[in-house]
Amino acid sequence: MEYLAGIDVGTTGVKILIIDEKGDVKGSITVEYPLFTPKPGWAEQNPSDWWEATVKGIKGLLEKTGIKGTEIKGIGLTGQMHGSVFLNNRGDVIHPAILWCDQRTAKECEEITEKVRKERVFEITCNPVLTGFQAPKIIWLKKNHPEVYKKISKVLLPKDYIRFCLTGTFATDVADASGTSLFDVKNRRWSEEILDALDIPSSFLPECFESPEVTGYITEEVSALTGLAKGTPVVAGAGDQAAGGVGSGIVEEGLVSVSIGTSGVVFAHLEDVFVDPEGRLHTFCHAVPGKWHIMGVMLSAGGSFRWLRDIFFGRDESYKVMTDMAETIPAGSEGLLFLPYLTGERCPYPDPDARGVFFGISLKHRKEHLVRAVMEGVSFGLKDSIKIMKEIGVPGCVKFRLTGGGAKSDLWCGMMADIFNGSTVRLKVEEGPSFGAAILAGVGAGIYSNVKDACKKLVKEEENVFKPDKENTEIYEKFYILYGDLYKNLAVLFDNLAKIS
Fold first, then answer.
1. Is 176 a catalytic residue?
2. d(CA 301, CA 304)
3. Cα–Cα distance between 365 and 226 in angstroms, integer?
4. Can you tell me whether residue 299 is helix, strand or coil?
5. What is the mean pLDDT of residues 224-235?
6. I need a labelling partner for 147 at 20 to 30 A (CA). Which of 196, 310, 361, 407 fits?
7. Please, which residues have CB within 8 angstroms of residue 260's CB and are 6 or more apart in sequence?
8. Which of 176, 240, 276, 418 is catalytic?
């Protein structure tokens, strides 16, 4: 039997998955690590924590499954996007990794946009410069820690640091590179024009590959540490959203996925470059060679639900208990609305100063209402991206494949069907980005002929389809209009709050 592994370097932990060539999951393991917030709006991690967790996870999963390292025929990498890992010429980490949800670089985003010109940035990268992206982090480090900046030899994305540890090679993929503000998305290569304008040496950046291409091989040292076989190929892989798109089978037009993890993502495949003219959505290269995808991203989707649990219920409370409570409350939460902007927002409002809000609280509202309002608020935020996709003519948007922790709740699946006014369905194998990374490894190892054919064989929908309830849809449409008005009316106040806090 031949096996494939996917390694997902996530925000809360590394997840490692092993599948066989039929796509059946043989085992998975997750090893957690901390996230640090040294200042409000900052988010950092130690790359050494990622590597230690990866080694522990690989060893543990091989032991757990009884699969030999020699039976693993390929490894795919995925993980949190946009983060910056700064290395010196010895390959040592010289500054904590600055993550995707970090909001410290608002000024740098403005400076980059001014230097390159807003129109030109959009023409090259297909996106505005955003605080989570990599380029403004590099500029921030140059301005605030010039002594560290002078030592930089390479700047890597999170999963690509693990690639370096596994293989000793510096490489990335076109999908993950698309979220750096340094990449020519249409032509699938680093932008010399932007690098020159920002005075960032091209030598800082790794070589870029299509996602199924082999980028290196497991070293002898790593073989001894993990139990993997020396020489096992490691493919380029993809950032978590593109890899999750592969794992959900979103590899042809007309298919759309909705993911509720820490962040929330609406994701659609594109055969050609297709850009929202107002820049409210992201257009990136896809993990399917020669293709693209468009997506809307909200920063605190499942993260809002976890925050509610930790604050009001305690970390040990199960999410099922919370959703069971929410099920006792009618659609609309009896007039309670929640804006899920706990860490700022990205789509459709690129506003690092936006904050979470409960609106309409009265004496009749209880914990149950808070839970349902958070679920509804997150769903409204996802609907924002779906609405824009419909407006600009993205194919599909009538049936949605649901992934992530939120998809485990029948209530949430049905709620999204009502709010989106479209059918929703789960997948038989819902392992997300790590599953997609393993599929990409299979293509690179020659087990599958291409990504699209692999997904047709391996990705299947569940039989149960959630269809919209007309009465609930009508109720939600009224609350959705009010939800949209809330941000528009509070935007100035969010800005004022940021200036005094």
1. no
2. 5
3. 52
4. coil
5. 97
6. 196
7. 301, 302, 378, 382, 402, 403, 404, 405, 406, 407, 412
8. 240
